[in-house]
Amino acid sequence: MLAEMATLRSAPPEGEEIARSARYLAGQAEVSRQRAGAVLGEVLEAWLEGQGLVELEDPVGPYLATTAEDVADVMRRYLDPDARVEGVVRGTGS
Prior knowledge:
- The protein has 5 helices and no strands.
- With 94 residues, it is mainly alpha-helical.
- The chain has one domain (2-80).
- 0% of the residues are buried.
- The model has no long low-confidence stretch (mean pLDDT 87).
């Protein structure tokens, strides 16, 4: 897994792969707004944690504006092997 993370950090996705992913996420945002409960959740989150209702004007814009450099920045920040945390989960036995 560390080797794959290193590969992603050195050669993040570009071009059509990012555009396809952005369109997928934009579509998911639109679909999720078909339920009243989801819209209410967005309104509450915008008021409580965000910058207000202005965030809800264009829910797909941020996805479609994502660039290869944006993705590369996130990968460098969050796929840093020196900042990883490992854990062990054990069962209780039979």
